[in-house]
């Protein structure tokens, strides 16, 4: 397979992961009234993209996945924040994942991506509402990131055995 075919394959897989990220975010959803947000599984798709395709595609899938999810879910006020929060989550976790080869390093990559996403939503909730909303959102956003990381690690392990990247 030449470089052009590999690039096209990665682009198509990223588009598929973007769609899966939005679907995961819409199907697996738990509303959180005190933060005006929700807990969903979009982070799993973001982490899968970051781990398999790298930081650029992780950022694209994360940013546009979060943005599209907010637009179709009725949380349009969060769309620009999600573009940044989940975009950075994908970029940072993908970059660190590529820099490390140990299992602990891979978990650290996903943990750091989650921390960045949680911090970004803390800022978003504080700007849009009050610091209390930002503080209340930390636990639920952290839970969302952790669940997404666990799901992604399980899926990526299986995908790496079946698909050549």
TrEMBL record:
One annotated Gene Ontology cellular component of this protein: membrane
Signal peptide bounds: none
Keywords: Membrane, Transmembrane, Transmembrane helix
Pfam families with a match to the protein in the record: ECF-ribofla_trS
Parts forming coiled coils: none
Transmembrane segments: 12-34, 46-69, 104-124, 130-156
Name this polypeptide is given: ECF transporter S component
Taxonomic source organism: Limosilactobacillus secaliphilus
């Amino acid at each position: 397979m030449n470089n052009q075919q590999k690039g096209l394959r990665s682009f198509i897989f990223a588009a598929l992961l973007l769609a899966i990220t939005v679907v995961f975010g819409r199907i697996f959803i738990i509303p959180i009234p005190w933060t005006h947000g929700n807990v969903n599984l979009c982070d799993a798709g973001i982490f899968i993209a970051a781990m398999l395709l790298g930081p650029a595609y992780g950022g694209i899938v994360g940013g546009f996945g979060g943005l599209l999810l907010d637009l179709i879910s009725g949380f349009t006020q969060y769309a620009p924040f999600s573009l940044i929060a989940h975009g950075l989550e994908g970029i940072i976790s993908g970059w660190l994942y590529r820099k490390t080869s140990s299992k602990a390093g891979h978990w650290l990559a996903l943990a750091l991506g989650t921390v960045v996403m949680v911090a970004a939503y803390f800022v978003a909730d504080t700007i849009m509402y009050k610091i209390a909303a930002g503080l209340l959102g930390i636990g639920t956003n952290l839970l969302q990131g952790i669940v997404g990381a666990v799901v992604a690690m399980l899926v990526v392990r299986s995908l790496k055995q079946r698909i050549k990247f």
